[in-house]
Write a sequence for this structure.
């Protein structure tokens, strides 16, 4: 991700999330040494993105989003796999995230990549209120 991607990522946020990140919040990640954000592009257009934060030997996926008209094309899966591979290359112990249990498409993507359900955060999400399933992919044996 670079500065030129900020407005496109903000549009993806608006399409995907009930509480989207602002352009300022997205731009701030460019200055965050623990942030790793990647975009997916088709014909020069940003169609998806993923952001993760890594510290010590832990990575946490903050958000994954794909424009509505490009969903069900494998872009989300490719982004999650790419971020997971980057975390593994950086010698992280694991990569983790929270997902709405009702987001069955995302849960299936994470499970196919190897993430396992490891916990539940009660009332993690709002608008609408919902628990968050914690899913983790461990790299160390």
């Amino acid at each position: 991700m670079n500065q030129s991607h900020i407005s496109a990522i903000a549009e993806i946020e608006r399409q995907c999330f009930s509480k989207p990140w602002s352009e300022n919040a997205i731009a701030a990640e460019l200055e965050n040494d623990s942030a790793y954000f990647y975009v997916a592009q088709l014909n020069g257009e940003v169609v998806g993105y993923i952001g993760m934060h890594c510290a010590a030997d832990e990575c946490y996926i903050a958000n994954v989003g794909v424009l509505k008209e490009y969903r069900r094309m494998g872009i989300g899966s490719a982004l999650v796999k790419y971020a997971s591979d980057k975390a593994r290359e950086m010698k992280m112990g694991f990569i983790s995230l929270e997902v709405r249990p009702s987001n069955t498409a995302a849960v299936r993507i994470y499970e196919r990549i190897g993430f396992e359900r490891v916990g539940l955060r009660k009332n993690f999400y709002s608008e609408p209120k919902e628990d968050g399933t914690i899913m983790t992919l461990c790299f160390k044996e």
The mean pLDDT is 94.
